[in-house]
Specification:
The structure holds two protein chains of two kinds. Chain A is α+β, with helices and mostly antiparallel strands. Helices cover about 40% and strands about 20% of the residues of chain A. In chain B, α6 (about 140-145) crosses α13 (about 325-335), α9 (about 205-215) packs parallel to α11 (about 245-260) and α18 packs antiparallel against α19. In chain B, strands 7-8-6-5-9 form a five-stranded mixed β-sheet, with helices on both faces. The chains are: A alpha+beta, B alpha/beta.
């Protein structure tokens, strides 16, 4: 990667913003698995593994899977956030491999929030 | 003057990075252009919680919720809605067809009372991708600091923000930077900047989580700090026990180097700066500034007296600017959004004196007997009650709240009478505790406060480096006395002895480990003296924790002979046959509590030893 000038930095910002906000681009959804130490020790890696396998076997290619840090509510880890294009993100708690697969099938593919493990929708309050 | 309509523009971090400030400014100028300035007011609000669809604009009293409003939507919006009163369908938020059957995050108390500044990107960006950080305006504060501000201006901005050291000391960051810069200029020696990530408090994980969720924020803060003090060399001292945090930080530093944000000639501005990660070996005392620097130099991690400050003579006798992870992570936002914005959060008026009040937010890790354990960020000045009961969701199992310990192992335990106290640096110190780095341990009525004091003193006794006598001997003595009390062998004069030893340590110890170590003892004596009395005079432990003072007994009326306790007992102390009354052998019983956990009928009681024949 070449060294950046200030203009390059702005360009990266504009490009990266597009993918981060899901507002444009072709992806229909983004699934974020929260991988802080708390999440990992509660089984986030297994959840992630199952999710990737599930997506692969479904043949779907327009879903972004990404990782992020702890979502704050360590007592309910593993957690994941599912965001469908144009809809508020939904936070899921107490996940297991079979639960994330159900969420992928019912929420991401079917559009129905899996209320059994859904905590809430929306984003956190930032300063 | 009364306005007929208010236009609320979200100015939370999420929307701001979606250019909501430009939307707001365009709204204002367009409103003026249309001659509505006397009727319509634009207000910048805090986060609306729907960052994914920002910039959010709400028109009140109509209650119309717009999302994704950019500057080019504004003329049409003003003309249609504000002038003609017709909501703009195109920009309206359309909820998913099916009614959302789950609550909004903002309506859940755990999230509703939090305000994310340092943790603004938690759970939202991939910490291992620098482009994600850049997308949320990452490194734009660095650009501002390097191209638009002098070192003095940066320092002044930090000073006026009222940012105080988040590692626990609460020293104004701006003053520290200024002193370091002056020392370096005066002595003509190049200063060093250091990030203290040696978080050693049991039950505390603020710094770990910040690095794991947003390592670039720390890196960016450090580069800005280096620019302010005039340094080209930085260190992160991180403990060995944080492998994921270390890995992510390492990756962040490598990515920043690849992009030319670290190294020679940063962003072609002529500034040089690089960061090296140094691993600590897990000694608690190495979180102390002088011990940390000794360890950085490869020496034994022991503190020294601080009549000469480390900002003047620190690492290898160079002026050294040491700040905690959370402090560094606050810096980019203060530079980006201004001192005033930061000072508007929290308590007190900063004005010209950064010692005034506690501004901004604080990250706490909440653990112990509380329903929602986790990592929280709240504005300074929030009450303990809001933290424990609203965010924490109260005490599990129907038990009662007894105390909350703030500030890690050497913090104090505060009782329910202080629950309405605001959480800021000065109030906590006044109450005999401290902010510390932000560990918060909640205790319920099943907790024995004498035993808690004993536990923390035993931790500190092991972690004391032993260099100075008051700490080494004071802790040993305190531990002996506390152990004696928890065994029912306490003497009436013991409380006075503990107090005396504690006060000597506060006055005489070499470093903050020692001077703050008596806090758990002194605060429990101050607020829970009745428990010390019960142990010493009645030889009972009211909470039923101290093993030497209690016996386990089976309630004859409740026991139905289910045999579960028999199976659970690891030492075979339970006797009894199925469907018959069981009993516990006092001599072999180790009081581990395994039987209590298994008994569905709550038939196993902890009774004071004195009541058992």
């Amino acid at each position: 990667m070449p060294r950046l000038s200030i203009e390059d930095l702005k360009k990266i910002r504009d490009d990266a913003k597009q993918t981060l906000t899901l507002r444009s681009g072709d992806a229909r959804a983004r699934i974020t698995v929260h991988m802080g130490t708390c999440g990992i020790s509660a089984g986030a890696r297994e959840v992630m593994g199952a999710l990737l396998k599930g997506i692969e076997s479904s043949g779907i290619t327009d879903v972004i899977v990404t990782t992020s840090g702890c979502a704050g509510l360590c007592s309910r880890e593993p957690m994941a956030t599912v965001e469908l294009k144009g809809q508020p993100p939904v936070k899921y708690v107490d996940l297991k491999p079979e639960r994330i697969l159900r969420i992928f099938n019912e929420h991401v593919l079917g559009g129905r929030i899996v209320t059994d493990f859904a905590l809430a929708s929306g984003c956190e309050t930032t300063g | 003057m009364a306005f007929r309509t208010h236009v609320l523009v979200c100015a939370g971090t999420g929307c701001v990075s979606g250019n909501s400030f430009i939307t707001a400014r365009t709204l204002e100028s367009e409103i003026r252009k249309q001659g509505l300035a006397e009727e319509v007011q634009v207000i910048r609000t805090g986060c609306q919680g729907f960052c994914a669809a920002g910039p959010i604009v709400i028109v009140q009293p109509d209650g119309v919720f717009y999302c994704g409003v950019t500057a080019k939507d504004v003329p049409f919006l003003v003309q249609e809605h504000l002038l003609k009163g017709r909501p703009v369908k195109r920009l309206l938020y359309s909820p998913p067809a099916e009614k959302v059957p789950i609550p909004a995050l903002k309506d859940i108390p755990f999230f509703a009372k939090q305000k994310l500044v340092v943790l603004r990107n938690r759970g939202a960006i991939d910490p291992e991708r620098i482009d994600d950080y850049i997308a949320v305006d990452g490194y734009s504060a660095l650009v501002k600091a390097l191209t638009e501000m002098t070192a003095e201006q940066i320092i002044n901005e930090i000073k006026r923000s009222g940012l105080r050291g988040r590692g626990g000391g609460g020293f104004p960051t701006g003053i520290k930077w200024e002193t370091c810069r002056h020392a370096a200029l005066h002595r003509a020696v190049e200063p060093v900047v250091v990030c203290n990530a040696d978080e050693g408090d049991p039950g505390a994980f603020m710094d770990r989580s910040i690095i794991e969720s947003d390592p670039h924020a720390v890196v960016e803060g450090m580069i800005i700090g280096a620019r302010a003090v005039g340094s080209s060399e930085g260190f992160v001292y991180i403990r060995h026990e944080y492998p994921i945090a270390r890995e992510r930080l390492l990756k962040a530093i490598e990515q920043a180097r690849d992009y030319g944000l670290l190294g020679k000639n940063i962003l072609n501005t002529g500034m040089d700066f690089d960061i090296e990660i140094v691993q600590g070996a897990g000694a608690f005392v190495c979180g102390e500034s002088t011990a940390l620097m000794a360890s950085l130099e490869g020496k034994v991690g022991e503190p020294r007296a601080k009549y000469i400050h480390t900002v003047e003579y620190g690492y290898k006798n160079r002026p050294t600017n040491l700040n905690n992870v959370e402090t560094w992570a606050n810096v980019p936002l203060i530079i980006n959004r201004g001192a005033q914005w930061f000072a508007s959060m929290g308590t007190g008026e900063v004005g010209e004196n950064p010692w005034n009040g506690s501004s901004g937010t604080k990250v706490f890790s909440m653990v112990g007997k509380v329903n929602n354990t986790g990592l929280i960020e709240v504005p300074m000045g929030i009450t303990l009650r809001e933290i424990v009961f609203d965010i924490g969701g109260g005490i599990p199992g129907g038990n009662k709240f007894k105390a909350v310990q703030t500030g890690g192992p050497s913090g104090g335990c505060l009782p329910d009478s202080l629950l309405d106290m605001p959480v800021d640096f000065d109030s906590l110190t006044e109450a005999g505790s401290m902010m510390g780095s932000g560990g918060m341990i909640v205790m319920d009525d099943q907790t024995c406060m004498v035993d808690v004091a004993r536990y923390f003193i035993s931790f500190l006794t092991e972690e004391s480096c032993g260099k100075c006598t008051p700490c080494r001997e004071g802790l040993r003595t305190s531990l002996d006395v506390l152990e004696r009390i928890t065994q029912g062998k306490g003497k009436p004069e013991d409380v006075e002895l503990l107090r005396e030893v504690g006060e000597i340590m506060q006055d005489c110890c070499l470093c903050a480990l020692g001077t703050s170590a008596p806090n758990p003892v002194l605060s429990t004596i101050r607020y829970f003296s009745d428990e010390y009395d019960a142990h010493i005079r009645q030889h009972t432990c009211p909470a039923g924790v101290c093993k030497e003072l209690i016996e386990f007994l089976i309630d004859e009326e409740k026991c139905d002979g289910c045999h579960a306790c028999f199976t659970a007992c690891p030492v075979g102390a339970v006797a009894g046959e199925v469907k018959k009354l069981h009993n516990i052998n006092k001599i072999t019983c180790e009081k581990c509590g395994a039987c209590i956990e298994m008994c569905k009928r709550n038939a196993i009681l902890k009774v004071p030893r004195s009541q058992v024949a």
